[in-house]
Amino acid sequence: MMKAAKEALDLGILVSDIDASLKFYQQTLGLEKVGETKLPFGLMHRLSFGNSFFKLIDPKKVPPKGSTGLTAQLGFRYVTFQVSNLTEICKALKDKGVAFSLPETELMPGVRIAMVEDPDGNIVEFVQRDV
Question: Residue 131 pLDDT more than 80?
């Protein structure tokens, strides 16, 4: 039914503190900011990861926070970054004092994952597939 216009999926999230979120995604994770767009309901900061855009939205009015955690409520619960250097990422995050929801773990042969939380409690997953 849908025909992809690019080999990626973009994600937008409303954040409670744009400075903390930009610091986390840019300085801690290394995503590159590529632009800003004014929206009727706030300001979108577009970050790039591969062919995907990760869009942090600073809303004009911050809505109430929902439950955090992987299984706390229904809906989109985490974002996955497919990476080729998981161990290096985990070491760098540990050195920066980032706590892990799930430390580097072999999920199945050839597939390792790790999970952290962003400043709003959203789950950020890193996956390395060696198969």
Answer: no
